[in-house]
UniProtKB/TrEMBL annotation, chain A:
Keywords, comma-separated and alphabetical: Cell membrane, Membrane, Transmembrane, Transmembrane helix, Transport
Topology of the protein relative to the lipid bilayer: Multi-pass membrane protein
Gene Ontology molecular functions: dipeptide transmembrane transporter activity
Organism: Pseudaminobacter soli
Protein name, UniProt field: ABC transporter permease
Regions that span the bilayer: 97-121, 133-158, 178-197, 235-257, 285-307
TrEMBL record, chain B:
Solute-binding protein family domain span: 69-399
SUPFAM superfamilies the UniProt entry points to: Periplasmic binding protein-like II
Protein name, entry field: ABC transporter substrate-binding protein
Keywords: Signal
InterPro entries linked to this entry: Peptide/Ni-bd, SBP_5, SBP_5_dom
Organism name: Pseudaminobacter soli (ex Zhang et al. 2022)
Subcellular location(s) of the protein: Periplasm
Source species taxonomy: Bacteria, Pseudomonadati, Pseudomonadota, Alphaproteobacteria, Hyphomicrobiales
Domain of life, source organism: Bacteria
Pfam families linked: SBP_bac_5 (PF00496)
Record family assignment: Belongs to the bacterial solute-binding protein 5 family.
An example Gene Ontology molecular-function term: peptide transmembrane transporter activity
GO biological process entries: peptide transport
Secretion signal, residue range per the UniProt entry: 1-23
Amino acid sequence: MTAYLLNRLITGLATLLVASLVVFAVLEVLPGDPARLMLGMNATPDAVEALREQMGLNQPVPLRYLDWIGGMLSLDLGKSYTYSVPVLDLVKERVAVSLPLAVIALVLSVAIAIPVGAFAAQRRGRAGDTLSMGAAQIGVAVPNFWFALILIYIFAVWLRLVPAGGFPGWSAGVWPALKALILPAIALALPQAAILARVTRSSLVEVLGEDFIRTARAKGLPFDRVLWRHALRNALIPVVTIVGLQFSFLLAGTIIIENVFYLPGLGRLIFQAITQRDLIVVESVVMLLVASVIVVNLLVDLSYAVVDPRLRAR
Amino acid sequence: MKRWTTFVAAAAMAIAASTTAFAARTDLVLGMVLEPPHLDPTAGAAAAIREVVYANVFEGLTRIGPSGEVLPALAESWTVSDDGKVYTFKLHSGVKFHDGSDFGADDVKFSLDRARAADSTNAQKGLFEAIDTVEVVDPTTVKVTLKHPQGAFLYNMGWGDAVIVSPKSADTNKEKPIGTGPFKFDSWARGSSIKLAKSDSYWGEPVQLDKAEFRIIPDASAALPALLSGDVQAFPNMPVGDSLPQIQADPRFKVVIGSTEGETILTMNNKKPPFDNLKVRQAISRALDRQAIIDGASTGLGTPIGSHFSPANKDYIDLTGTYPHDIAKAKELLKEAGLENGFKTTLKLPPPTYARDGGQVIASELREIGIDAEIIPLEWADWLKQVFTDKDYDLTIVSHVEPNDIGIYARKDYYFNYDSPAFDKVMRDLDLTTDETKRSELYGEAQKILAQDAPVGFLFELPKIGVWDAKIEGLWENAPIPANDLTKVKWVD
């Protein structure tokens, strides 16, 4: 187990190093000058030059790379070109929105998907199966921003139960902050739940056909117990894999939902930073995301061992 | 028991009375599409910076009013020497910055010197180029000497880029702006909202609002529900799209279509063949059906223009008839230029909707006279590099939003690649003229030269679509400069 973890750690660090080179190189060749973007079309060339100097853009490329990497190792992610505040502060603010949102959405998604998937598997080929999988099909097909707009019009414009968007910040209190995250979390969770429900169902159906299930039934165990205790646990590996992938997506791939609800999340930060050529923010946030994907993947692999004791030996 | 009910009734009446007496709200949430990168108008070009802080947080010597007029601000009065080179400003006394420090002539000198210094990162450094020296005469008097007379000097000092900052806070204004205005900066939740609060130590007429919040709503589809749910009560520049009729029909809202200083133009690379040929430029100008372009690019809102001047400006002359839409004539002009079979070219488009949608309309109009323009969409950063800086383009569409910016056609090495000695002379004369009537004449002449020369295809003036709660008064109808001046805004019943 220790050798395994050590191995994973080294692979993770190597991945980070390669990613840092790729990110830096890609942004280096991306056309556009952050200083000119900041000062606009009317700026005099010497003012643009002065700002380039101030931003440190006139230093040689390798030096800038080393500066950046060195800074990251000491947890100093540098200062945003546009916002001119430390990148770490920016990221912290955004993570305070994106992480809770991702967690709520994921919990919701799992809470919906597992029972629905199990329900459908249990009634394979019957009306319940067709209905719930039909609903899941719709959930997969309908884009989440459309869900989001429907939810906004019902709950914010018509019923006025929650705000139409925005985020008051956790300093405004836990409940107002949660209220702002409910609709986006639902809008994110539904399509994810639909995918997850389908995976749960097919995985369960497969497991239910196995010999040990028949044995369990033959012992006289009620079907429900067999389903929840024996079959589900064995069907979880593909489900956990998908959950892991979904979490990585929910952390940064939610820009459309963030835009519709004008939430200050990580997705919007990175999008805005790219369009404004706030290179230092893009670089640092991408690295952070790469790191979080590596960690999530590791957790997923470790959870396989929890779900399936046979894997522990390896 | 009886006493209780009396008491409750009395209390209820008291509350009712107090709410009617103080019914007028004193808070306002405004929606805006783009978040400012930072909040220092002396170090960045983004209109969003001014839309938050201009006139609210920061003030200059002069300021621009709702109709584009020059008004006194921190300078209560001024005198101009006979040769037009020396401006002596008398400053208001008893003015304080929001951090409590006193404002005085030293701060004016500091701010103007800082803006024109060698290492200045002021986005409009050109505004200060005519300044020779800035002298402190006494704590409330400043003397500015120019290298040459400059007719627009007082106007220039009203730009957001010319606001007066304190040496103590100049370096931190980006994150925590400290000005002299009637609102002080409260907080900024990045990506989400910027809050201002009334400044109690303001030197001038106090504002009616206690709190103002600018909420960032980047997505057009989110703007309407934000307004309908009451989360946002005003959208001074709203991305309405197709929902305009719906809002106009709703009595809760006021829809005000005003003008901006954004001349939207089809720029041609004037040095690159065949656009160096006047006949080709005329042909393209005649191929443009401005109303169809406005319909496609700006949902039918916006005023057609025939030169580079805002129709809201008092010196504007209507030159849309110079080269009216005429396909047959356009084809003839192309033939005279030796291009009767048309030609292939490119049309590079930046991200705004007016450019992307307008580009489609224009490409199809050009096809009618045999010009095959390939559309190339570009990101802003890429557009600024390829088109604006490297001048590697044939045609492009962009809105020039700086106020009163006809002078850009006299700029050497500007991305238009336009060069007209006659036009340059008019611009030089304008700089040396302070007489208002003469200035108007010169502006007229400049507009005519451009209309005739057609260095670009003049399309339309960008509209300002303002939507706000019908009970709000005092927001600007037009945008003579980028600003959301809240100094006169109040709720009425």
